[in-house]
Amino acid sequence: MSTSDRRQTGGGRARRVDAEANRSRILDVAEQVFGAGGESASTEEVARLAGVGIATVFRHFPTKAALLRAVLVRRFDRLREQAEALLDTADPGTAFFDFFRHLVADAATKIAIGEALLDAGGDSDGEAAEASNGLRRAVGALLRRAQQAGAVRDDVELPEVYALLVATSRTAAHAGLDEEVRARALTIVFDGLAPHRHQPGAG
Amino acid sequence: MSTSDRRQTGGGRARRVDAEANRSRILDVAEQVFGAGGESASTEEVARLAGVGIATVFRHFPTKAALLRAVLVRRFDRLREQAEALLDTADPGTAFFDFFRHLVADAATKIAIGEALLDAGGDSDGEAAEASNGLRRAVGALLRRAQQAGAVRDDVELPEVYALLVATSRTAAHAGLDEEVRARALTIVFDGLAPHRHQPGAG
DNA sequence: GACTATACGGAGTCTCGACTTCGGATATCA
DNA sequence: TGATATCCGAAGTCGAGACTCCGTATAGTC
């Protein structure tokens, strides 16, 4: 309900099926390409890997920014759905920490996602910001539930938790950080989020 | 002893004082410009703000990458010196946590620094990698000392600690994360680094 | 099978930014 | 002060990548 409903409403005829298939393939490829190379990857490469001409890409997405936005919206929506699904999980603590881990692992192969997690919140266009906020709210719900269950300390709030989520995701997105180190770093963060602790390192 | 010693050795005459002044000013401006806008900021803007022609920038630094590298080397060296100075501080725990906080705050106004903290380690040229490793080693020394003093748990190692340092620095570097949230996020990380805790959120 | 709106791809244009050229200025030294 | 090696800036070149034009192909409809 976020994308791909353009001509359906408004009177004009529906999109041709080949055009719809191309649009979908372009989105898939763009997610991979921008995921691997960041947003500096070229539109031409997306077209080539999708097996279409560059004009076709620009016909479906008027600017490169629009394409990137569409990719991000889809990704954010998917992550939000996964987060919301976890709200039904039996153990709130497991749900929260698992999703944290999942998002970081997911971002590890998607540079642009990690970057965008941050950027989309502030500026950006309405749709992308909305998708980003949707994800943020879902994380907030997981957090609150985990706190009520006593799995996360009560004195932390969404902004700093989300900041840590973004920070670890963005860093995991780049090469050079192997999986084991990432897991150990997350363990430290999770320990910091756990209840029953005193204040260290205060200046 | 890392930069600015070019013509001094080797027989040729020393650099003219106006040239040396320009070189220094270019480095200062470049640090600001790349700090604020990331490495995508243009060389021409550096030249303009430094009050010189663009050719002068390229005369001193043969490529944009070389300029960026010079900026980073200088910055890394400076941070390393600060870290090493803290090794004489009375309290090892305070030294470690203060430097962590300092580095994150420093990176908050220097996008390129945060990015480079990560990148320089892996590839990059010899000089930049060396400077980066120097900083990493200095952080390692602070960490070990803090652990011996019982201010940081014994079962964490430099890779994951450095990863967290990089992660929080990079994220702090972008807009939209206010100072208070940053401080609260760091508190969580520091709590995770503190000794005497059980394992939460394990899956 | 023919007709047509829709979609396609290749070959452009246009802008931007890294880097060079070269004639003119100036610090340095005698 | 005069000679000159060094340094400077304005105006280029060059390549890359975002975006457009237009003749051709094809899905959808009869």
Automatic annotation (TrEMBL), chains A, B:
Q: Which residues bind DNA?
A: 42-61
Q: Which key words tag this protein in UniProt?
A: DNA-binding, Transcription, Transcription regulation
Xref: InterPro entries: Homeodomain-like_sf, HTH-type_TetR-like_transc_reg, HTH_TetR, Tet_transcr_reg_TetR-rel_C_sf, TetR_SbtR-like_C
Decide whether keyword NAD is in the record: no
Domain HTH tetR-type per the UniProt entry, residue ranges: 20-79
The domain of life for this entry's organism is Bacteria
Per its UniProt record, what PANTHER family does this chain match? Answer: HTH-TYPE TRANSCRIPTIONAL REGULATOR BETI (PTHR30055:SF234), HTH-TYPE TRANSCRIPTIONAL REGULATOR RUTR (PTHR30055)
Q: What is this protein called?
A: TetR family transcriptional regulator
Mind giving the lineage of the organism this protein is from? Bacteria, Bacillati, Actinomycetota, Actinomycetes, Micromonosporales
